[in-house]
Amino acid sequence: MSFDRDLVAPDAEGDERLIEAALRPKRLEEFIGQARVREQLSLVLQSALRRNRPPDHVLMSGGPGLGKTTLSMIIATELSVPLRITSGPALERAGDLAAILSTLSEGEVLFIDEIHRMARPAEEMLYLAMEDFRVDIVVGKGPGATAIPLEVAPFTLVGATTRAGLLPAPLRDRFGFVAHMEFYDVAELEQVLHRSSRLLGLQLPGDAAHEIAGRSRGTPRIANRLLRRVRDFAEVRADGVVTRDVASAALNLYEVDAEGLDRLDRAVLGALLRKFGGGPVGLSTLAVAVGEEPETVEVVAEPFLVRQGLLARTPRGRVATAAAWVHLGLTPPPDAFGASMVVDLEDDLGHA
Ligand SMILES: Nc1ncnc2c1ncn2[C@@H]1O[C@H](COP(=O)(O)OP(=O)(O)O)[C@@H](O)[C@H]1O
Ligand SMILES: [Mg+2]
User: For this protein, what is any one GO molecular function term (predicted)?
Assistant: First the structure.
């Protein structure tokens, strides 16, 4: 048994990247939600423009699909400067980074996606470049090695990370501004959906947008993806007309339920409740019960279930909450794990 994760996976792959590029807001004022980040960033950018200096380096932290790449492109657009894009995994050696830094033009925005995955030597070179706009290129090896200093044009680093906790403190401290991207509420996702529908030339009634938004896991990328599935369904089965019922039928067909849970999520919860009486049960036992790798269960299904307050990771194993029983239409036992306890435990374990 294996599950098609494409529909509610927060990462984008293949063709989806092209479609996403077309749906990306280009200016800050088009960017929906994240009101606090937007206001903070707008101040940073305006004052930089006023002083005619590159703004402080910006770190964007938040889960996949929340708009980090979009926002970094917006920063370059708002400053009317070029944008250079790379990613942590591409910077394996210090030389990879030096090659980029030495060719930056003044004021350019350098976007490093997944910055927590940079190699150590590149990271150390980056500290110096961020602070002093200078790097030391080491030539030769051993006792004969010499460091040749190289000037770097003043630039703005925009880093994006899904795991801010993995960034070493010296790197984190060199960002003047950290934008914490939050999950979007349903009303904001409705706006995202209306905007995307306009761009796709699709009529989307308000109640249909509401239906899709509620199943989108707080994530614009998923909202846009569900919208395309609803559009496909409507074209084939409903003469291209999207209504709330059409949206709901489409998403039911793709097995995305009213809370955004998909087949794997429900299989994990179902096994936890029906086979293990709600837990606690170990990760690998639970994974075997749904015929998946432990890592798939842990990385793909659990974070969302935890966030929805349906599952808790405790030192003794995975535990279903009272809400999980209710979600699957079952009666919670009197001693079912309460929702308030879940929050406490997550805090204690340091991954709330
Ligand atoms: N605030 C937003 N307003 C409108 N669309 C958004 C917003 N944030 C993200 N999106 C859409 O979601 C998709 C994924 O966003 P992206 O910036 O690639 O996320 P991340 O880099 O955080 O994974 C983009 O194609 C964009 O169209
Ligand atoms: Mg991205």
Answer: four-way junction DNA binding
**Given a cut of 60, is residue 348 above it in pLDDT?**
no
Q: Is 111 labelled as part of a ligand binding site?
A: no
Domain 263-349: give its CATH architecture: Orthogonal Bundle (1.10)
End-to-end CA distance of the chain: 30
Nearest CA to ligand 1 atom 23: 65
- pLDDT of res. 298: 87
d(CA 32, CA 26): 11
pLDDT in tens, 283-314: 999 999 999 999 888 878 898 899 899 999 99
Distance 56 CA to ligand 2 centre (A): 20
Measure the CA angle with vertex 305, ends 303 and 308; round to 5°.
110
- For domain 186-253, give the CATH number: 1.10.8.60
Q: Rounded to whole angstroms, how far apart are CA atoms 269 and 290?
A: 10
Question: Is 3.40.50.300 the CATH number for 34-180?
Answer: yes
pTM of the predicted model as reported, rounded to 2 decimal places: 0.85
Query: For ligand 1, is residue 31 a contact (CB within 6 Å)?
Result: yes
Yes or no: say if 157 and 55 are a contact pair by the CB < 8 Å rule: no
